[in-house]
UniProtKB/TrEMBL annotation:
It catalyses: (1R,6R)-6-hydroxy-2-succinyl-cyclohexa-2,4-diene-1-carboxylate = 2-succinylbenzoate + H2O. Its cofactor is a divalent metal cation. One of its GO terms (molecular function) is O-succinylbenzoate synthase activity. This is o-succinylbenzoate synthase. Residues 90-187 form the Mandelate racemase/muconate lactonizing enzyme C-terminal domain. Mg(2+) binds at residues 140, 168, 191. It comes from Brachybacterium avium. Converts 2-succinyl-6-hydroxy-2,4-cyclohexadiene-1-carboxylate (SHCHC) to 2-succinylbenzoate (OSB). It comes from the Bacteria. Its EC number is 4.2.1.113. Keywords: Lyase, Magnesium, Menaquinone biosynthesis, Metal-binding. The active site is at 109 (proton donor), 215 (proton acceptor). The gene is menC.
C-alpha cells in the first residue's frame, strides 16, 4: 500500500489493511475493518467507521500517528477492569453473553430502531439474572431518545435492571441530557456529546453529564484524552471503538494512565469480533485486561488481510486524511 509522504516523514514504514467479521451485528456493522500503521514506537490502529467523513476521521489518524511514533504515558496500574458489552440481542443470547470474560459490570445496548422498550427491558432482566444482584448494569441508548422518551423509558429500564449504574447518551442534545439528568436520579454518561462534538468539554461545562466516555481514536489520541479528562474534571470511562487488540491496547494505556478510574471500562469488545490480530487475543479474564502494547501476529494479519477492493478504499481514505493532518 502507498504510504503518504507526510506519514513517511514521521517514520511510518508499514501499513496493512484488515477486515474481521463480527460475531453479532453491532452498530449496524457485521465486519470490522481498518488499517494498522507501523512506526518508530510500534504498531497502531487507524479504523474510523465508514460513517465518519474525512474531517472527523483525521482525528482518528492523529491518534494512530501519535501512538505509532511516541511512547505511551506511564501506566499507574497493571490491569484494567472492563465491562462486558451486550448488543441488541434476544434475552437468551444476552444471558449467555453476560458470562463471557467474567466481568462484574455489563453495558447493555438499548433503543435500536424497531426494537421495543419491552424487548430492551427483557434483555436487561436476562443480564441481571445471569450476573446476580452485585453486578453493575449500565445502558447505552446512542442518542436515540427525545427528552420525553428518555424520561419515560429510563425508569422502566432502571426497574428491569434492578438499578442502573448509569445511562449513556440517552438523548443527542445537551439541553435534553441536562434536563434528564436533573429530573432523574440515574447518573448520565456522555459519549457522542464528547466524541462527535466540536468542543468535547462543552458537555462538562453545561453540567449535562455525571461522567464522560472517552474513546482514544475519535478524540485524537491517549495524551489528548488525558488532557481533556483533566480539564473536564469528571470521572472517565474509557471505551473502545471496536478495535482489534492493537487499538484496544491504546485504550487500555489511557485507562492505565488516568489518575482515577472509578468505573469498569468498555474495552472488553474483542469478543465481539470473530478473531483478533494479536496473540493471545485481548479477551478479558476475571473481568480484567492486561496493560501493555500489543503487536499484531504476522500470521493473523495475513489471515484477516482485507481484499483488494477494500484495501484500495483504505488507501484512498488514508491519503485523504493524511492531507488534512
Ligand atoms: O463501551 C462499551 O462497552 C463497548 C464499546 C461501544 O459500546 C461502542 C463502541 C464503538 C461505537 C459505539 O457505537 C459504541 C458506543 O456507543 O459506546
Ligand atoms: Mg456509547
Amino acid at each position: 500500500m502507498h504510504i503518504p509522504s507526510v506519514l513517511r516523514e514521521r517514520g511510518i514504514d508499514r501499513v496493512a489493511a484488515f477486515s474481521i467479521p463480527m460475531t453479532t451485528r453491532f452498530r449496524r456493522i457485521t465486519e470490522r475493518d481498518g488499517l494498522l500503521l507501523h512506526g518508530p514506537a510500534g504498531w497502531a490502529e487507524f479504523s474510523p467507521f465508514w460513517d465518519y467523513g474525512t474531517a472527523e476521521s483525521a482525528a482518528w489518524l492523529r491518534a494512530a500517528l501519535a501512538d505509532a511514533t511516541a511512547a505511551r504515558p506511564a501506566p499507574l496500574r497493571e490491569e484494567v477492569e472492563v465491562n462486558v458489552t451486550i448488543p441488541v440481542v434476544p434475552p437468551v443470547l444476552a444471558h449467555r453473553l453476560a458470562a463471557v470474560g467474567g466481568a462484574r459490570t455489563a453495558k447493555v445496548k438499548v433503543a435500536d430502531p424497531g426494537v421495543s422498550l419491552a424487548e430492551d427491558a427483557a434483555r436487561l432482566e436476562a443480564v441481571r439474572d445471569a450476573m446476580g444482584p452485585a453486578a453493575r448494569l449500565r445502558i447505552d441508548a446512542n442518542a436515540a431518545w427525545t427528552r420525553e422518551e428518555a424520561l419515560a423509558a429510563l425508569p422502566v429500564l432502571d426497574r428491569a435492571a434492578g438499578g442502573l449504574e448509569y445511562a449513556e447518551q440517552p438523548c443527542a442534545e445537551l439541553e435534553d441530557l441536562a434536563a434528564v439528568r436533573r429530573a432523574l436520579e440515574i447518573p448520565i454518561a456522555a459519549d457522542e456529546s464528547v466524541r462527535r462534538a466540536e468542543d468535547p468539554l462543552r458537555v462538562a461545562r453545561a453540567e449535562a453529564a455525571d461522567l464522560l466516555v472517552m474513546k482514544v481514536q475519535p478524540l485524537g489520541g491517549v495524551q489528548r484524552c488525558l488532557d481533556l479528562a483533566e480539564q473536564a474534571g469528571l470521572p472517565v470511562v474509557v471505551s473502545s471503538a471496536l478495535e482489534s487488540g492493537v487499538g484496544l491496547s491504546a485504550g487500555i494505556a489511557l485507562a492505565a494512565a488516568l489518575p482515577e478510574l472509578p468505573y469498569a471500562c468498555g474495552l472488553g469488545t474483542a469478543t465481539l469480533l470473530t478473531g483478533d490480530l494479536v496473540e493471545p487475543p485481548l479477551y478479558a479474564s476475571g473481568g480484567m485486561l492486561p496493560v501493555g502494547r500489543r503487536d499484531p501476529a504476522p500470521e493473523l494479519l495475513e489471515r484477516h488481510a482485507a481484499g483488494v477492493e477494500l484495501t484500495a478504499r483504505w488507501e484512498e481514505r488514508l491519503a485523504a486524511c493524511a492531507a488534512q493532518s
